[in-house]
Amino acid sequence: MSPDHPPGLDLDRLRALLERERPGLVAGPLTGRLIEGGRSNLTYEVGDGTGTWVVRRPPLGHVLATAHDMRREHRVISALHPTSVPVPRPVLLCEDEEVLGAPFYVMDFVEGTPYRTAAELAPIGAERTRGAVLSLVDTLVELHAVDPAEVGLADFGRPEGFLDRQLRRWGKQLDASRSRDLAGIDELHAALGRALPSSPAPAVVHGDYRLDNVLIGDDDRIRAILDWEMSTLGDPLTDLGLLVMYSVPLRLPDSPISTTAAAAGHPAPAELIERYAARSGRDVSAVSWYAAFAWFKLAVILEGIHYRYTLGQTVGRGFDRIGELVPVFIEHGLTTLQEG
After folding, report:
1. Cα angle vertex 191, ends 188, 197, to 5°?
2. 311 CA to centre of own chain
3. Partners of 284 in beta bridges
4. Can you give the pLDDT at residue 215?
């Protein structure tokens, strides 16, 4: 296919759908391109020369029933759009697989930059980097302040027993990827289970909240939170724990995992925690547990990638070194939990 007709995106069928469902929205033929990034679902930028939109759909060849995933993503941004939480304006949800071969949704294109590495932050300097990361915390507070019932998300998840289910889920993921001895990972899993905190009142949880899942404007404020595929109703401190984990510089030369934490001006985890506590009014005394859980979860995810690599199912630059990162994440998890 040509660059203007990327796989998984039939622009003629998409235009026909938009003309039928949103008359007057599209002014001419559509062009499209695949946007890099995102965990698993595919994201495309489409435009007609005057307007620009974004299409989200499941991966090509995905055989699971995925309408639920698209519906959930569309539902959460539709619920949050009228609030102060910055999300793209939803345009439509299409669950008819005849159009693109899978369910998908369309939303407005939002201008902004997703900063993925410290090197990408370097040109804006230390002061602006600091502002962007603090804005990340402030926006998370706004998300967690939304009353799920008031925006129609009271049934968006099962908050009761949320942490216990999460811990068991990632334990099962670990068991499914066991191919070598990993010192300390079972100890970390067990210690997390013994120290399970009591969750605060449930909130809308993003599930993968970090700097490269938001778009930052020229004023260093967040224009939009993206990638809602892991969102649910649950313990809001899991989002904070993940943000804290991503704010610890790994200091590993030539690491295949890039974070923004080593950028000049990036606030330390303690400052992010204090700012979240002050602005949200939440008790964050158990934040070490949540950060340790984030280290455990990422260790499991990386071990799964390493396992698939050893089976020859994952190809690409850097995958051969993912396995050596896993013990680093385990050690961070154990240390974080002990310090808590």
Report:
1. 120
2. 27
3. none
4. 96
Residue linked to tokens 């979240």: 276
Q: Which two tokens stand for residue 79?
A: 């619920």
Is pLDDT of 68 > 60?
no
Helix (H) or strand (E) holding 105: strand 104-108
Please provide the DSSP assignment of 188-200 as one string.
HHHHHHHTPPPP-
pLDDT band at 42 (very low <50, low <70, confident <90, very high): confident
Is residue 57 within 8 Å of residue 212, measured between CB atoms?
no
CA distance 159 to 292: 20
In the chain, where does DSSP find H-type helix? 11-21, 67-80, 97-100, 118-121, 125-145, 162-176, 185-194, 237-246, 269-280, 287-310, 322-339
> What phi and psi values does residue 105 have, to the nearest 5 degrees?
-140, 160
- pLDDT score at 1: 40
Q: What is this structure's pTM?
A: 0.92
Look up residue 227 and give its two tokens. 């990638």
Strand order in the sheet with 104-108: 31-35, 42-47, 52-57, 104-108, 90-94
